[in-house]
Design brief:
6 copies of one chain form a homohexamer.
Chain A (H helix, E strand, L loop, with lengths): L1 E6 L3 H8 L15 E6 L2 H13 L3 E7 L6 E8 L1 H17 L5
Helix pairs in contact in A: 2-3
Chain lengths: ~100, ~100, ~100, ~100, ~100, ~100
């Protein structure tokens, strides 16, 4: 599992991610000071998505990879502090244990 | 083969899985206290699906991976005890023998 | 090449396989006491399909993998004895020689 | 590069290959006593196809792999002697030299 | 991550890239003295795209790889000095740190 | 990167390549005494295409691989001397340096 954060993302970067999101939502979250990126195998990403969805102040999107139904990249949008906090929680859960996520 | 369990899954996580399920069923199982996830090669997953289908109190869905027809992730929905019991049975069968599943 | 057998398969497992079969046939074989599964590279699976087609009392289906045209999993339906016999023959041929199948 | 030959192929095996052939031809070659199979990377298969096309008494089809445009399996139909001779020629050319095929 | 630069690109090369770009823009940038190419895993490329978008005098396109939604190649169009400067910045950021991009 | 040349290609081989070419051109080049084949990762092939496009007397086509948008095989059509000269130039550039192509 690999984790990155983009601070003050450019519009072009947001567009690249928006063109590939899996959900039907078309609204961008209001405040996008930062984008967290999490990449990994599908089973890990379902777990990470659940952790991020339970975090406060962020919007989670699954970004389609090599084919429409493949989820290998999660993008987490929000203010910098909230994105950082969601990413820390994902990291902590991933290191904690293998079976329960 | 890799196994995980998500307790009290968020709605967003259930949505991500529902968007990718292989079957035509559109009803979510009534009680989803937990989601079991099993990932592996296709031949293993057909066997694991059979074990889970024979377990009590759970609903099994195959989640499409990198392409619509690829089944690499199984999601098992139900109350926590039933999901845990189905996952144990899958683990036990996988360790028991290679040819018969 | 990997070989498995599922005895008394559940309806859900049969459905998962039926949704992915390559041929246009829609009829399930009458007696499905067992399902043999054979997974491998495409060239091996064409050979295994030929061996199984020549066996008695079984129906052979190629199950689509990651993309519609990819054949990586064979399912062999029939009564337990016939499926076991077809799988043994596939195993024997695969071990016998590399060039002729 | 991997090479196999199926003697007296079953109708089911011919059907599996016919469903996946790349060309628009719908006619099966008249005499199919044997099917030669050649699997490899795309650049190798273009070369092998050229060798087989120049051989006498065989019909060459490229069988689509994991996606419609991927050519990783060649099927060579004809009487046994012609198929064997085409396969020998492919083997000989592949061993002879790397640059010219 | 792999980086290349093509100086005075031929029209055929520009056409190959234009046929595969992810965005809906159909206009070529006015001055294309050079094309920078950056290839890598999806998470790296989202970061590299953000760095390039913030650079001056270049246009960034994501070039679709093995399937429509897969972004593995970035093309950066512009005058030679601007492209070289954007590529240096991408290289510098990639070497600097792993988490923040 | 792998390079091959087919001298006096058969019509069947030309057809296989023509069915997979990326461009909209439907005309075969007038003189096809030889076909040069170059296979590699996408970033390498964009560079090789540029070198070949700048060579004299050859036509360059990108041949679609495992999926429509994937370019992993270049075919270079022309008289034998021109194809050989274009392939030498591609080889020379590839060995010369990594960054500039």
């Amino acid at each position: 599992m690999e984790i990155r954060i983009i601070k003050s993302p450019s519009q072009g970067t947001i567009d690249i991610l928006m063109r590939r999101k899996g959900s039907g939502k078309t609204q961008m979250p209001e405040c996008v000071d930062a984008i967290g990126l999490v990449q990994g195998r599908m089973i890990e990403m379902v777990c990470a998505a659940d952790v991020a969805e339970k975090a406060v102040g962020v919007t989670v999107e699954d970004i389609r990879g090599s084919c429409p139904q493949n989820m290998i990249l999660l993008a987490i949008f929000g203010d910098t502090a909230s994105v950082e906090s969601a990413l820390s929680e994902i990291k902590r859960k991933a290191e904690e244990g293998k079976d329960i996520c």
